[in-house]
Amino acid sequence: MTPDTTLTGIRGCVIDAPEYGKLRTWRDGAVVLEGAKILEVGDYQHVGKKPRTQPIRWLHNEGAAIFPGLIDLHAHVPQYPVVARGRGQLLDWLHHCIFPREKAFTGPAGQREAAAFFPELARHGTTTAMLYAAIYEDSCDAAFHAAAKSGLRIIMGKMMMDVGTYGAVQPRKVLSVSMLESERLCRHWHGHNEGLIEYAFSPRFALACSERLMRESAAMAAQFGCYIQTHLAETREECERVRHLFPTSKDYTEVYEKCGLVGAKTIFGHCIHLSDRERIALAAMGAGVAHCPTANLYLGSGIMPLAEHRAAGMKIGLGSDVAAGPELNLWQVMRSAIESQKVRGYYEQKIPIPSPAQVLYLATRGAAEALGKETQLGTLDPGKDADLTIMNIAAMLPYGGSATKADELTAEDILALCVYRGGPHAVSETFVRGRSLYRSSAPELF
Ligand SMILES: [Zn+2]
Fold it and tell me: Is the pTM higher than 0.90?
């Protein structure tokens, strides 16, 4: 078979964020893909007119904006249908709204629903996601099948909890069953689809897991070289209960450190209520943080001290945390990351407010770094995997753009439009490794 030598060129306003707060833009730009990789990025006039031996198939136009694929570091597959439902803070909400939902996520209905989730991610412009399934092997396996079929980059694991699981009477040997099922899923799926699919051991949090389960999960994750994900310091009430449950640990983070759960392949959801010692420990171990501001506002959990965490050297990306977060839409998570720090600035002195460029960094390059994939993902540098999110500028403008002149808008204006008005209605196309996984039929008229 002769290889396809045709290149793919994508024209539009090219925007990425190689450093925190530093944008790189080409207002009339182009990204050229060769198979699964980015070959070239630059001005359309330069890139488009360059003499080449290989033909280019051009897609999109000046009405599009081209970003590195958006990365969601934290969401729960079984919870999606109950977004915006339930009241109260985390622990009440889990028991009254989420556990009954997750408990039903098994059998044919659970398996069908698991399969429906992945096209939704692509429709929202998300190219990489780190996900929790429910405690069941069957629906997690179905979710992996669907993830592989979708072509997305997915890191996922079966939820593990052996302390009062879903509030039910404790099934006997729940720990050994949970370990066995997780190991089976990991052996089958980790590295699948040429590495696009990876496994994450997923103990829910210290209040739902025995120390033995956490220790064995950490050991198994190390054995297979896969990820770990859990929740850390989301609410004050949770932190208080952890203090009572683990009186010999000096803080919440140390509970996980003692079990071996803190490392460069661990992503901790939330991390709102941390001490200086915990920040330093997490940064020193190279652990990643999924900052989930929409979820934190929904459940009233608190506002993550973003500037303090970054100053300590912690690796931070963003998470939708569906269903505590009401949307898979990462643009709204970026907006919320800005606005929540603005709110904090009303009652605390000298709180730096992140810019659109900074939150774009968190959703792309920052998240890639948290995953240890910054050489492969997160910016539009040649040689990186061609994971791209293409946005339709007119779909975000008032009156479909008819009242705005194209040359009024700078690349910074276009990024701000995406952050404040972006969403699935404006996603034009989603690529992972150069393969189109979602394409809107809406024309880019602007
Ligand atoms: Zn979560």
Answer: yes
